[in-house]
Design a protein that fits this description.
Helices cover 3% and strands 64% of the residues. It is mostly beta strands and 183 residues long. The chain has an 11-stranded antiparallel beta sheet with strand order 7-9-10-11-1-2-3-4-5-6-8. The radius of gyration is 17 Å and the shape is globular.
């Protein structure tokens, strides 16, 4: 892979991780649970995308996660990872079919193996949009993910701060996993 994708180059491929842990509020059990999950991620390169004088290189991605022996994933995402070499900006834009869209961003060196992206509602660049139901019942206060890229693996630590109707204080919904190249 050439360097046009900067710190995203090591993410290109097909990935699986069996050691994921989702710490989230369980509506059926009315408490916070840590649940292991299996994840499959596909990241396909494209670019450049010319936006005036800006030249972005990206990864088209989708991910799905399953608990135990479930047939249907409990979580899916589709979106893009983008790299702007001129500014060192890394972006991750994605949609979750619960009615939420996130554009998270940060900066990194082209050869970085670790980088962090953030978003919060109302921020001018890196923001979060949600539907009315989520705004009332489980509103996202902030999102942060740190990516660490290895040779044939990569990992993430993700925290989504939520204000949930069931909980008096903001709640840190966390996910983390290490993915291994399978293709």
């Amino acid at each position: 892979m050439t360097s046009e994708w900067g710190p995203l180059a090591g993410l290109v491929g097909e990935w699986e991780g069996e050691g994921g842990l989702d710490t989230a509020y369980s509506h059926s059990q009315e408490k916070v649970l840590g649940t292991p999950y299996l994840e499959k991620v596909s990241l396909k390169p494209f670019g450049p995308v010319d936006n005036g004088n800006q030249h972005l290189w990206g990864l088209d991605y989708k991910t799905a996660m399953w608990r135990g022996d479930e047939q249907n994933p409990f979580h899916t995402e589709v979106g893009y990872w983008l790299w702007d070499a001129a500014t060192g900006e890394v972006l991750r834009g994605f949609v979750v079919p619960r009615g939420i869209t996130v554009l998270a961003g940060g900066t990194a060196a082209a050869d970085a193996t670790t980088f962090t992206l953030r978003a919060a509602p109302g921020e001018p660049q890196y923001t979060i949009g949600e539907n009315r139901y989520l705004a009332k019942n489980a509103s996202t206060l902030s999102y942060e993910v740190t990516i660490t890229v290895g040779d044939d693996s990569w990992s993430y630590d993700e925290t989504t701060m939520l204000q949930m109707i069931e909980l008096a204080e903001p709640f840190a919904h966390t996910d983390h996993n290490t993915l291994r190249r399978v293709g």
